[in-house]
Structures are given as C-alpha cells and as structure tokens.
Amino acid sequence: MVKGALLVAGTTSDAGKSVVTAGICRWLARQGVRVAPYKAQNMSLNSYVTADGAEIGRAQVMQAQAAGLEPVADMNPILLKPGSDRRSQVVLMGRPVADVDAMEYGALKDLLRATALEAFERLRKRYDVVVCEGAGSPAEINLRRGDIANMGLARAANLPVIVVGDIDRGGVFAAFYGTVGLLDAADQSHISGFVVNKFRGAPELLEPGLDQLRQLTGRAVYGVLPWLDGLWLDVEDSLGLDNRSVVMGAPHGRQTLRVAVAKLPRISNFTDLDALAAEPGVVVRFVTGPAELDDADLVVLPGSRATVTDLAWLRESGLAAAIRERKGPVLGICGGFQMLGREIVDEVESKAGLVEGLGMLPARVEFVPEKRLGRPEGVAYGQPVRAYEIHHGLTTVDGGEPFLDGCRAGDVWGTTWHGALENDGFRRAFLADVAGRAGRDFVPAPDTDFARLREARLDALGDLVERHLDTGALLRLIEHGPPAVPSLPPGAGR
Question: Which residue range or ranges hold the CobQ/CobB/MinD/ParA nucleotide binding domain (predicted)?
Fold first, then answer.
C-alpha cells in the first residue's frame, strides 16, 4: 500500500488547487488508500463547523468528503478570516485566538508554524497518504520568510510539490517557469512537476509547449485536465463568484425562479447558495446594484465577516433602499439576518456601537466576544433541518413568526443557520412558498438530492485525475518524495 504525502501548489489563487486536491483524494480513496486532505493555512470566509465544534475552511470539508472522512480541525489548523483589508481573525485548531493586522500576525508565526506541523504529523501517522493544498502561489517571494503553507511546509516535511496552472487565464507556461525561477535552489528541489488545468481543446496542440517546458525546467508534466462545467461547489473565496450565474436545468413549471444575492464586500459562507443553484429551474446571480433586483423573485442577503461595514456598503450602493421598497420575498442568512433587524450593537467587529438596521424584521443583534459555533437541528415547513452556525452576534427576536432560530415577517425570513438549504425537503417547501408569493409558475423538482449531487461531482473530480493525469507517476512521487531535479540556469532563480 502506498504511503507518503504530496503538496498541490498553484501558480495563482483560484488555479484549481482545491479541486485537484479533492480529485486526488477521491481517486486514492477509490483505490482503497486511507487518504486525508490538509491545508496548513487557509485565508477564506467560507467555513464550516466540524462535529466536535471546530471551525475550518469549506474547501477542506469538501476534500474530506472526497476522501470519505468526517472533517476535523487537523485538516485546516490555521484559518484566517479577513474583516478588512488589513485585519484578520486568526482561527487556530478551530477556535478564534486573535484579531490581528499584518504586523501583529508576525508575532504569532512561531506558534502557528508549530501547530500546523503538529497537525500534519498527526494526520501522517493516522493515514496512508496526506494530500496537502498550498495557499496562493509558492512564488510569493515577499512572504517566503514566514511561509507556512507552501515551500515552508514542503521543506519542513520533505514534500514533493506539483504546481497547478489555469490555462484558461492565459500565460500558463510563463507562470510555470516563473514559479520555479523565482524560488531559491533549495525550494526548487521540491518542485517536481506541473499539471495544466481547465484546458479547452485538443491536448495535442499543447505538446510543443509542454515539451519545451520539460526541457527548460527539467521537470515532468503530470497531465492536462480538461475544462469541466459545474465543479464550483465549496469554492474557497469570492474569486469563484464571477461565473456563478447559473441555472441547472429546465424548470418543472413554465417559469424559472430568479434569485439575486447581494455580493457583499466581505461576503462569507456564500456556499449556502450552492443548493439553490443546484435546483433545476433556479437561476442564482450575484448583484451589486439596485437595477439588478428588478426581475428577482427572491433576494438573499448572505453571511458577512463585517456586518456593520457591509451594511454601510449596502446603503451606499442603493441596494438597501431597493430591498426595503421592493414587494417580494427576502431571505437573510447570518450577517444578512442581522442587517434585516431593527438595530445592531457592535463593540466587537466594527466597534461602531449602536447601528440602525434595515428594520424589516423584529430583531435586535448584539455582538459578543465569544464566537458561537454549533451544529443545530430544527424543523421548518414541517421538514427536518440540520445546519451549522458561526457568529458573534446574539439575536433577540420580539415578534413575527418563528423560522428556524430566527423569524419571519410577511415575505421576509431571517436565520443565523448556514447550510439549511442543503436539506432537500426544506429547500423544496421554501422555494414553493417563495414561488407562490412571487407569482411564479415554478415547481421545485421532487427528486433533487443535493448530497448525491455533491458526491457525483466529487466522483467527476476523481475521474478527471484517473483519466487525465499520470497516476503511476503520482503514486511514485507520493511514495518516494521529491525526485532529483535540476535548478534553473544561473539568473533564473532569485
């Protein structure tokens, strides 16, 4: 049985590291290998609560599912949640420990590095293979000295590294060569080869370029992954929102149901909308201006890492006034629910004190230092609902109808629960109610199984790896570690 580890890096953010890592995990799991995912440090506002109450990145949850595992904090020991351009909350082993700027973060580096390596070693002892995902690019030379997630991890754990490049963006050959060339010789020795991602067309057209890349770098090309639509589940950050106006199939009624989601500057857990976008006949699009609400049947205010700041943006953009004036269904989730209430008292995130909400729900929110993390269960529309919650705001409801842990007033709903829409029965009942109130001839599909759809997409990732990568070479790389590879010519490195 193969044993070892591998680091999947990328030429850029959103190059496809997360999905390639998940695909390798699914492929190995299907071979009977006990495999676990790992990301030392993740900067993301899409997070999840594990069964034991730890907060980790959604991408690692998806990768754990690909491996057939229940996610745990060791798979993502450090999670950074930006609250502004300069400050982030540091979540260590699933619990928030500090809110820091870039300079203050440096003081935590030794603790973070030690914790990350300890988590990795626990996974390596427990599983046959650990597939690690890097962060951003390994060639971010301004950050190399304190790096934990890329070449710092590769050097500390003696990991082979494959670099994924997004050819759909253009410039992938320069990105591959430049990634290696910017590293010093010791880091270069861990870069074992490349994977071309998101290719549209005939692979033989790439061969001249791939041959030159092999000759120039002395490194292998492990394969070319074709473009495949519909693999956007559990994306890591808002870079993945640009292509998410999608309808999954023909509606059961004569009309589609149109959902407009406010694209807040600090939008978090927008993966809540994945289940809506997976519903046949439902069109989900992310919007930034009031005119985009004109034809919406449902408006969603999603989660936010900076509720008060994003509420101010909502007002400045004109969306707040448009939402208040419109007649039709509105759903607020977590931070969106808080915005819909009468007032917010925040001495924790923004420290703005008392702030007036949109006043569309009879609720008051007060932020407290202790973050609430949980996996609640309840009933709505007569259907069971299992969800998770991540918030500093404590909400008091003084009217309306109960709705999960929040409330409903007329055509406006609010809840702090994430993931509720992944419950098939509840989602169908909610959408049927929305369609009726919006006057749309839309009937939810009776057989959409979101969990099964996610599994099918993970299988599709495993199929991509099996069919388009040199899996034999990957197994040798995992088992034997970094191969002997040349440094680039003098002057090509740093």
Answer: 7-231
